[in-house]
Amino acid sequence: MAPYLGPYAEYLADRGYSQVSYWKKTFLISEFSRWLGEQRVAVGEITAEHEAAFLQHRAQHRIIKQADPMALSSMSGWLRDKGVVESAADASDEMSGIEVIVREYAGWLREERGLAPSTIENYTGYVGRFLVSIFGDQEPNLAVINASAVTDYIRGNAPRDQTFSHAKNMVTSLRSFFRFARYRDYIHTDLAAVVPSVAGWSMASIPRAMPAGDVRRLLTESAKRRTPAGRRDYAILLLLARLGLRACEIVRLELDDIDWSRGWLTVHGKGRQERPLPLPHDVGEALVAYLRDGRPECPCRRVFVRSRAPFDKLKTHSDICQIVHRAIDRAGIKVKVTGSHQLRHALAVDMLRQGLSLTEIGQMLRHRSPDATRRYAKVDLDGLRAVALPWPGELP
What we know:
single chain; mainly alpha; DNA polymerase, domain 1; 3 domains; 17 helices; 56% helix; globular
């Protein structure tokens, strides 16, 4: 691996690793390279099994650190990106029949349907488990799947899920997969039509919004943190609380999406929709403070990146939810739900109490359907009193 140590060292430096981290990683990789030579394994033949065998061998002489497996897999990933090590996509002949079908389905979701990577990962997970339960270790033949097998699987697995959303995601994924299978002529019947619906009712719950006082307290406490991570987290909280952005929209936000001269912010929402939003003064100041004194230098064009090396982009909405969860704990706020979406709900409820109509709220939150905004009518107590019928007889 000696010819690749120099370029990989430059790669580590570009991603913001300190000199100490650099020496630790390169020392580990040097030992791995020496072990590969003793085992007569070429660089292009490295697999995860070789990494595990090396760590097991190293444990006989040294204490294995928690970061060692990640350091090796990071080097292997870099070699894979450079084309030195064969990628999993190139090794399709070693994949099982189910894995081949799931990978083809993922490509269809990405190319034909235009779904986000997180959605594709979610769908393929449900479909993979379904195919394993039907075929096991055998080669899959989708043509033999019948309606009773589909309904039996859903009845047996939906009750095991913890929430209604899990069961709903499962049936949605299966419907999508059966449409794909029929489109590719793997099946000749419309199995998507036999997938049963999951019992659930829209408007059955009240939006879980953080109280306005808690939102102010959360922002006040978060503004006191002057560390780079603190400036980043405060800017994210303001985007959630003042503009009602979704967590995934904050993750996708790029530097070119901010038009400082016009005071606009381009939001990449659901369904690949782009919507410009006015940039409030306090949100703009928080973004400037983070970009000037908090954001590390890196080639990534995303606005929000990791506060520790490697300085990569934030990947999923769960990264935003963790930031909100930690901020709530630091502020000492007691709430049942600690996710980021409650700040979006809080903004909608506050706008409603200030007298804005549901149409205006839907435009601000970028709802594609009026039904998504209609749920907030349940927290408009003054409006509900005006249309409520009088109670018959004496009040209880």
